[in-house]
Each structure stands twice: as structure tokens, then as C-alpha cells.
Amino acid sequence: MHNSLRERRKDARLSQEQLAERLGVSRQTIISIERGRFDPSLDLAFRLAAVFDVRIEDLFTPAR
Amino acid sequence: MRKVAIAAGALAGGGVLGLLAGHFEPVRNYAWVTALALGIVGFLGIIALGRVLAVGRTADPTVARIENEQSVEQSWNRRASSAAFFDLVVIVSVTAVFFSITRLEVPIQLVLGAVAAVALADLGVRRTLLARRES
User: Fold this and answer.
1) Fewer CB within 10 Å: N-end or C-end of chain A?
2) Is the pTM for the entire model greater than 0.80?
3) Measured between CB atoms, which of B65, B66, B71 is closest to A29?
4) Residue B89 in contact with residue B118, Cβ under 8 Å?
5) Where is B99: in which H helix or E strand?
6) Where would I find the beta strands (DSSP E) of chain A?
7) How far apart are CA B113 and CA A51, in angstroms?
């Protein structure tokens, strides 16, 4: 799964630590998602999308 | 309430285990040490088992859903545990065949201890490798 989390986070001027805190997950989780090494659960993906006020499909796109 | 019941059961179970171990300890001077050690081990073991059987299975479904694979660490733990369990089945099978063929007489606690140590080490190594590879 591809995602634009890093770009969105930087646009929102949030550090990985701050984003992790807002979502209640570890910073390592954010790092792994940004690097495409961990696909978040649907619940976490929705919460991520809510943080940036975008639709979930704007944040995540299937790997082709 | 469930946690209190588990703790009480563990206390009772650990106590009984400790008393039995102390009673059957061949060296009378060491009876209380054996009783204490087995009592603590029994207490902790029953607590762990109780949490897995009672709390883990009947926890609030909302909480269980929220906690489901929320973090990459949980993913690593689950995958490492699954793989280590499979390894453990193989190790136990091979060990059983080995002792059946060789007819070696080794104290069972030594064999089980070795198997448990290997399983724990396996789990630790797998968890560490996953974390290094995916972080």
C-alpha cells in the first residue's frame, strides 16, 4: 500500500512524535507506515485520514 | 473482579504448588526454599494463564477492536509469536523422536527447560529481526 503520509504530515507541520501522540500509537508505527513497511488497520487509517481532514483514499492507494 | 479472582486463584494455586514441592523435596533443609521458589513460579504462571484464558478472551470487544494491530510493535509480536509457535512444534516433535530413538534417559525438567529456553530465544530473535528489518 502506498501512502502520502509523510507529505501530509510535513504539510501539517507535525513531527512523527506529535502525530503518534495524537493517534495514540508509537513513533515507530508512524515511521513504519511512512516507509510503507506497515499497513495500518482500517481503524487507524480512518483516524489518520481524520487528522489531515482528507478521505482515506486520498491518503492510501493500493500498490499496483 | 475477574482480575481479583485470577489473583486469588493464583495465590491459592501457587501456595498449594509450593507446599507440595516443599513436602516432596528430598533434602529437608531445602524444603522451604523449594516451596518458596515453586510457589512464586506457580503464582506467576497461573496469573499469566488466567489472563490469557479469562481476561484476554472475554475482554471488552470495543477495546479488543481498537487494540487490534494498531501499532507495528503489535504486528511484530504477533508474527514473531506465530512463527515461534510453529518452530516450537517442530522442536518438540524432533526432540520427542530423538529421545524415542536413542532411549536416552534425561530428567524431564531438563528437557522441558531446554525446550522453553530455545522457544523464548527463538521468539526474541524473530522479534528483533522483524523490528530491524521493518523499522
Assistant:
1) C
2) no
3) B71
4) no
5) helix B72-102
6) 2-3, 60-61
7) 49
Q: Is B5 exposed, middle or buried (0-12, 13-18, 19+ CB in 10 A)?
A: exposed
Grid cell digits, residue B72: 507495528
B52 with B10: CB under 8 angstroms?
A: no
The pLDDT tens digits of the residues spanning B93-111 come to: 888 888 878 888 889 888 8
Chain segment B20-52, per-residue pLDDT in tens? 888 888 888 888 988 898 889 889 888 887 876
Cβ(B71)–Cβ(A39) under 8 Å? Answer: no
Residues of B with a Cβ under 8 Å from any A Cβ are 65-66, 68-73, 75, 134-135
